[in-house]
C-alpha cells in the first residue's frame, strides 16, 4: 500500500473497499438469518401454495351449478361435508352438491370455486353453525373464484432468491413456507473495537478530575451491531505503543475481520496509533479532507484491515458512517453500501471550511419538498447534534458558504415516521 496523506472522501473510501473482501458463508437456522446475505441461490422444492385451497370461509361448489343464481332466485345445493383447514377429505362434489369449507382448507375434487359464506343463507340461521343439510346460494361465481391454486406464488424448481439477496422478514417467511430450515449466508463480520486515551474511564466509574467516560466503545459497538456485525470489545488502551499493541494482539487471537480504534490518530505527542501500525502492519493513509474527522488511519495490523477513527465522539461516529459502515457491509456480502440519498432544501445559511462536510441535520417534508435544518452546534464533541439528527447533510468540497434555499444532498440515517 502506498502512503497517502491527503485524500478526498471518495478516494479514501475506494482505497478502503479495495482492501476488503467478502467473508465466507456459514449455515444458519432461519431464526438467525435476518439481515444476512444469501451465499447460494434458493430453489423451491415445492409449489406454494402446495395444494388448491379456499381463500374464504364459504362453500366449495361447481361454478356451473350456480348460473343465474341471485338473492331473489337462490340455488339450493346439498351439503356433503364440512372441511376445516388441515383436513384431507376424500369426497367428490357432484352436480347439485357442495361442501362447507374454511379458509386454507383443501378444495375437494369436483369443486372449482368457492362461494363466501356471506353470499349464502347460513349467516341468517342465527347462532346455529352446525353443518346444514342444504344451503341456499345467492350468487353465481366464475370457475376459480376464491380458490388459491398450487404454485400461484412459487413453482417447484423455481429459483426464488439469488445469491447476494438480503434476507428481510418477508424472505424469511418465504424460506419457512418452502420448508427450508437453514440457509447459507455470509457470516457476520467480527469487528474489534478499541478505544485509546489516558483520560478514559468506564461508564460505571465516578468522574474524577481530567477524566471522561469512554463513550466511543459503546457507540461504535452499537454501530457494528446495527449493521449485523459482531463487536469484539478490546477495552481501552493507554496512550502507549505497548498498551495499544497488547490490546490489538488480543484481537488477533479473537480472529477479528476488521479492527477499529478511536483517538490517538492526530499529531499530538500521545497519538501513537500510527507508530503501532508502522511497526506491525502498514498505514495506507491518515488524512482525509472531511469534516468532522480529518485524521483517519487506514492500514493493516498483522494483516487485519484497520481503521483508526478520530477520538471526538461525533467525528468517530461520522467517520464510522463514512468508512467503517461500507467496509462492514462489504465483508458481510452486501452490495449496496450507501445510505438513501435525497436532495433537501437548506433552510438556513451555513458555512464550511472547504473540506467535504457532513452536517448533522433534521430533514422533514413540507410544501417545498424535503427541507433541512442543522441540529445546532456542529462541534465534533457535541454528541447531541447526532442525537437530534436524522440525516447528514453534505457540503461539497471547495464550498465555504451555502445560502438558505440551496438544495444539498442528505444521507438519511433513518426515516422516522414521526417526521415524514
Ligand atoms: P484524540 O484523538 O486522542 O486527540 O482525542 C480527541 C478528543 O476525543 C479528546 O477530547 C478525547 O478526550 C476525546 N475522546 C477520545 N476517545 C474517546 C472516547 N473513547 N470516548 C469519548 N471521548 C473520547
Ligand atoms: Mg488522545
Structural overview:
The structure is a single chain. The mean pLDDT is 95. The protein is elongated and about 95 Å long. The strands form eight sheets. Strands 15-12-16-20-19-17 form a six-stranded mixed beta sheet, with helices on both faces. Strands 7-4-6-5-8 form a five-stranded mixed beta sheet, with no helix packed on it. Strands 21-24-23-25-27 form a five-stranded mixed β-barrel. With 420 residues, the chain is an alpha/beta fold. It has seven helices and 27 strands. Bound molecules: adenosine monophosphate and magnesium ion.
| Class from secondary-structure proportions | alpha/beta
Uncertain runs: none
SS strand fraction: 25-35%
Q: Whole-number average pLDDT? A: 95
| Share in helix | 10-25%
Attribute tags:
420 residues; alpha/beta; Molybdenum Cofactor Biosythetic Enzyme, Chain A; Molybdopterin biosynthesis moea protein, domain 2; Molybdopterin biosynthesis moeA protein, domain 3; six-stranded mixed beta sheet; five-stranded mixed beta sheet; 27 strands; binds magnesium ion
Spell out the blueprint of helices and strands.
Elements: H1 9-18, E1 25-29, E2 42-43, E3 53-54, E4 58-61, E5 75-83, E6 97-101, E7 113-116, E8 134-137, E9 147-148, E10 159-161, H2 169-177, E11 182-186, E12 190-196, E13 200-201, E14 212-213, H3 216-226, E15 230-237, H4 241-253, E16 258-262, H5 273-280, E17 281-287, E18 290-291, E19 295-301, E20 304-309, H6 313-331, E21 341-346, E22 350-351, E23 356-366, E24 369-374, H7 384-387, E25 391-395, E26 401-402, E27 407-412
Parallel strand pairs: 5-6, 12-15, 12-16, 13-14, 16-20, 18-23, 21-24
Antiparallel strand pairs: 1-11, 2-10, 3-9, 4-6, 4-7, 5-8, 17-19, 19-20, 21-27, 22-26, 23-24, 23-25, 25-27
Helix pairs in contact: 1-6, 3-6
Bound molecules: adenosine monophosphate and magnesium ion.
